[in-house]
Design goal:
- By secondary structure, the chain is of the alpha/beta class.
- The chain has one domain (about 1-220): Rossmann fold (3-Layer(aba) Sandwich).
- The chain is built from six helices and ten strands, in the order βββαββαβαααβαβββ.
- The chain has helices at about 40-45, 75, 95-105, 110-125, 140-150, 170-185, and strands at about 1-10, 15-25, 30-35, 55-60, 65, 80-85, 155-160, 190-195, 205-210, 215-220.
- The protein starts with a strand and ends with a strand.
Amino acid sequence: MIQFQDVSKHYDTHTALRKITFSVEKGEMIFITGPSGSGKSTLLKLIYLAEKPDEGNIRVAEWETNTLRDSHIPLVRRTIGVIFQDFRLLGNRDVFENVALALRIRGADERDIKAKVFDALKTVNLRHKSDSYPDTLSGGEQQRVAIARAIVSDPIIILADEPTGNVDPDTSVGIIRTFKDINAKGSTILIATHNRELFRNTGRRVLKLDFGNFAGEEPG
């Protein structure tokens, strides 16, 4: 599903990732961990094509991203849901419209939009908040809206960058439980986090980064 082979990414004099090799199978849910600045966010950006590698090869589903034409990038991104640490919700739109936005951009039928948005909100237990605006929600609720927005298009891959970084420990447990439920439906999920408590005793694979270097793998 996802393969990195000797992938490096450089920014001026700084190397964000150095000769990274790993693979993720279809339907897996794995964690990527390491301290701040270890390259976790850069690795996710390479997967959803916000960045391109300077060295090495990356495969996402059936696409070799190194040889992918720029015109095909939107097609690949339609198969990937991304959840950012800072939520990136639109304050002037209610929960329903925040989740529906990607579907509207793609020109989906209004009936289909309604069904998919309510299904996504039900998955994250926020169906009752569809008319609310982001500034009326708690941090945990905002994060769950962001998750609903990421899954509404039925992506085959979901990437989450520090998804519990702005919420309390109890809320973090609920968010990880939500990811497990989504993963059980077939999506491949990569979660980048520096919080070891999130993957402790989960039985999931944990890939470790150490300031741009691959530092091994351990069971959660």
